[in-house]
């Protein structure tokens, strides 16, 4: 049986900060560790959502593409889904209100968990980025190359992870959420939404399996002491 309490993280968010964007793990490998998750592609090639075992890319033009097993990632988070319903959305909910409500009903600030909101969004705003070419820029300069997308009356899933502040750098401390529409018409890294119809569910992940790209010479030789990891993550994520 698959472990449903483990977050499998490949790479670290910190390695993206100085521009170590090379894809070093195939999706076919990643999917052995989870059927649900988020990530980015080789060269920071779009925003990924893995849903029901199927990996999707929301590319820099906003198109949603199904990915094959040979697609590689520099960073991803996955787990095996076993969500439990938390509540129905009954009044207008935004990302801030969602975070506030979840943290208000659960004492989960010091554990990882995954959260999922399936609903119809009156408004939703996401972003994604085109694949970068070498020499890769750093993450902060990529923040200015993001393309934003917006939708109205879109049904889909907001999903992602909460990581304790202690792990900021390894992951994004706090919430890191992506979106994918049911009809695959849009998606991306979540920026904003408003919904009054949906269901919120969550899954506590009290174990972290952190895998590092030790076969990547560039990563192994990189000196992270000069990178302002926390500052860059705050600015870019
Ligand atoms: Zn993201």
UniProtKB/TrEMBL annotation:
SUPFAM superfamilies, per the entry: AF0104/ALDC/Ptd012-like
Listed EC numbers: 4.1.1.5
Record key words, sorted: Acetoin biosynthesis, Decarboxylase, Lyase
Molecular function terms, GO-annotated: acetolactate decarboxylase activity
InterPro entries given in the database record: Acetolactate_a_deCO2ase (IPR005128)
A Pfam family recorded for this sequence: AAL_decarboxy
NADP keyword on record: no
Record's catalysed reaction(s): (2S)-2-acetolactate + H(+) = (R)-acetoin + CO2
Pathway in which this enzyme or protein is active: Polyol metabolism; (R,R)-butane-2,3-diol biosynthesis; (R,R)-butane-2,3-diol from pyruvate: step 2/3
Assigned protein family: Belongs to the alpha-acetolactate decarboxylase family.
Matches recorded under NCBIfam families: acetolac_decarb
Protein name, as recorded: Alpha-acetolactate decarboxylase
Organism: Apilactobacillus timberlakei
């Amino acid at each position: 049986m698959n472990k449903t309490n483990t977050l499998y993280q490949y790479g670290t968010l910190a390695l993206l900060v100085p521009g170590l964007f090379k894809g070093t793990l195939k999706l076919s490998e990643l999917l052995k560790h989870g059927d649900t998750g988020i990530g980015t592609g080789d060269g920071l090639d779009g925003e990924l959502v893995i849903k029901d075992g199927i990996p999707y890319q929301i590319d820099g033009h906003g198109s949603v593409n199904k990915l094959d097993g040979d697609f590689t990632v520099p960073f991803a988070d996955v787990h095996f889904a076993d969500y439990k319903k938390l509540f129905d959305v009954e009044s207008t909910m935004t990302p801030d209100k969602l975070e506030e409500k979840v943290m208000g009903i659960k004492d989960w600030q010091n554990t990882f968990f995954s959260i999922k909101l399936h609903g119809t969004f009156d408004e939703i705003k996401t972003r994604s980025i085109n694949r970068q070419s070498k020499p890769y820029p750093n993450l902060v300069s990529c923040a200015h190359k993001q393309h934003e997308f917006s939708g109205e009356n879109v049904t889909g899933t907001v999903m992602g992870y909460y990581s304790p502040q202690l792990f900021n750098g390894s992951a994004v401390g706090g919430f890191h959420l992506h979106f994918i529409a049911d009809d695959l018409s849009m998606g991306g890294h979540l920026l904003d939404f408003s919904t009054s119809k949906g269901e919120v569910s969550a899954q506590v992940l009290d174990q972290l399996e952190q895998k590092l790209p030790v076969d990547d010479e560039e990563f192994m030789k990189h000196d992270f002491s000069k990178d302002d990891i926390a500052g860059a993550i705050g600015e870019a994520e």
